[in-house]
Each structure stands twice: as structure tokens, then as C-alpha cells.
Write a structure and sequence with these properties.
6 helices; 4-stranded antiparallel beta sheet; alpha+beta; 15% strand
Length: 169
Amino acid sequence: MKAVLLNKLRPYQRKQVLLYNNQSTSDIITTLLNAHKLYASEYDKIAFYFWNGNARGTANKIFNFLKSNVPYKIESDARQTIKSPSAILSGAGDCKHYSSFIGGVLSALCRQGKKIEWCYRFSNYKLFGTTPHHVFCVIKTPYGEIWIDPVLHSFDYKKQYVNKKDKKI
């Protein structure tokens, strides 16, 4: 399926643009949210491949796809990137890349009429800390939340954080 998706997307040009020297967490969050809007039309081309009948099935399908096709590779604090969908599929990714892909697909499905309430969840796991250093996507249902975090070992695993900030698109 990865090859099919890459054929639908604009090719990855290996072009990089420096947005910030010494970026802050706030800069990274802003850039991720801006990229979400920038790449919306790309996700519109591929989202239907992930629809699996309902929010939970779709979330599980996206999770498994990313776990199988986009190796996890943490980025250093000095070099943080945001990627297009084709760039994500062409290499490794960290939590920002996984979340961008998941959020892009979920938003596209919403634009196509699917009823999915979701958000980006920026979380902090450090005691006495307030600055988020991780991001994943959450779907809200009448039965509770579905966590989609391919950094973790299993689907809908709920690793306890100290605090969070949710961002809806």
C-alpha cells in the first residue's frame, strides 16, 4: 500500500527549508499546525485508503500502517523537522511525523463526510515540567478516547502523562 500512496502524492523533492534557528517547543507546535493546513490537499488524495468502517478501525489501520512502513527515529533537540506526507512515507519519522500523518488522514476523512472528533495531544511526562515534548493523536468517542501513538508498542496504549495541551484543527 505504501507504493500506491506514494504514487498518489506529489513526489518528495528532498528540499529543506530552515524556519527557525534555536526553535522552541512553541515554534514546533505552530509549525506542525501550519503544516497540517499546508498539506491538507495531499491527505485528501490518500485518506480513503485508511477508512475501515468506523473511527476505531480506522485509527488501528493507520497505526499499523505507520508501525510497518515508517521506522521510528527520534530527532535531536537541535534539529527538529516537519515533513510532507510523501517525505514521511519516504523515510523514518518521529512523533511529530506520525502525528502529522495521522492528523492529516483524520482531517481528510472528516472533509469527506466521516464523523470523527479528534485532536493533537501535546504531552509532558516530566514531573514538575509543563513544556510538552511529545505529540500524538486522540479520537474522542462516546465510549472514551482512542489514542493513536505509533511511538508506543501497541495500539490505543495509554501512557500516563503529567500534563497535556489538546489542539483541534
